[in-house]
Design a protein that fits this description.
Length: 298
């Protein structure tokens, strides 16, 4: 089963074009949708989840025409929105049973099994009798995954799930996604490059409502090998370099010096050293290419 989007567009009443003719095909596995804030990720996720309508375009999950067969899609969808809202003061297991009822899991044995599975996969079995309202941010996010697993979804959408999680919780959360991602389509929308790097076999970069590129992360990094160069400079030096070269990122050192990374086919000058490209470079190169001025330095 694959998810296919065909020329999906959305302009909000205020004139913001959030989605601009999105064409995208997504296969089972972990798919990363990477883009800066305001790129259109949430709009796209909500559109796939049937929570809002595009102005134009078509969306299919296998044979399901998503715009015409909303209920069919919802039966096989697991969606974790950016803001899940307020949880009632109810123990996790009880709340999951309640959600399972809402999702139409009628058979008691089946319900028991799926609730146990959801708690186990998300490492919440030990705290199943505690109120979800009292959970930490990371536990709440894991509970969000537990609730979306109750209807055995074929398509799972998680929108910016790691924002605000501490490193240990973020790691735990990504491992859970990895576990549930093998047989299903899992779309992880994020602005954090490392989330995609650690997890996804396929990805797309979204900016200004457009897909800039769809790629295999590893291949994309390989393609940049030999084209990323670094030098040490200061603030003024960086400004100067930015005018002459394609500076894709810079980071401060403790002594306030700056490591600058440049995208160039050849070594810009003797002050530069070649460095191993990484997915951050891929991301910044694509975002910069989207700006009209950037072409690789010859
Ligand atoms: P992302 O999830 O990548 O941050 P969004 O889909 O939330 O992006 O937003 C894309 C663009 O659409 C942004 O410019 C945002 O301000 C705008 N936008 C989002 N929702 C609405 C809305 N309900 N009304 C008007 N503009 C919106």
């Amino acid at each position: 089963m694959e998810l296919r989007l065909n020329k999906v567009s959305k302009t909000y009443p205020n004139g913001v074009k959030a989605l601009d003719e999105i064409d995208l095909t997504i296969q089972p596995g972990m798919f990363g949708l990477l883009g800066p804030n305001g790129a259109g990720k949430s709009t796209l996720m909500r559109t796939i989840a049937t929570l809002q309508k595009p102005d134009a375009g078509e969306l299919y999950l296998g044979d399901i025409n998503i715009l015409k067969q909303k209920m069919e899609l919802r039966k096989v969808l697991g969606y974790l929105p950016q803001q899940f809202g307020v949880y009632p003061k109810m123990p996790a297991e009880k709340l999951l049973n309640y959600f399972a009822d809402l999702k139409g899991v009628a058979h008691p044995t089946e319900k028991k099994k799926i609730v146990e599975y959801a708690l186990e996969v998300t490492n919440l079995t030990d705290v199943k009798d505690k109120q979800v309202a009292g959970y930490s941010g990371g536990m709440k996010q894991r509970f969000g995954i537990a609730q979306l697993l109750l209807n055995n979804p074929k398509l799972i959408i998680v929108d910016e799930p790691t924002a605000g999680l501490d490193p240990a919780e973020r790691h735990r959360f990504l491992n859970i996604l990895r576990e549930i991602g093998t047989n299903n389509i899992v779309i992880l929308s994020t602005h954090i490059v490392d989330d995609v790097k650690e997890l996804c076999t396929d990805m797309a970069i979204l900016n200004g409502g457009k897909i800039l590129s769809k790629m295999n992360p590893r291949n994309a990094v390989e393609e940049l090998d030999g084209k990323i160069w670094t030098t040490l400079t200061n603030r003024e030096g960086e400004e100067q370099l930015s005018q002459e070269l394609n500076v894709i990122s810079s980071s401060f050192n403790q002594d306030n010096s700056l490591n600058v990374r440049v995208f160039s086919e050849n070594r810009p000058n003797e002050n530069f050293e070649a460095v191993q490209a990484d997915l951050n470079d891929v991301y910044f190169v694509h975002l910069k290419k989207d700006e009209p001025t950037l072409q690789p330095n010859a």
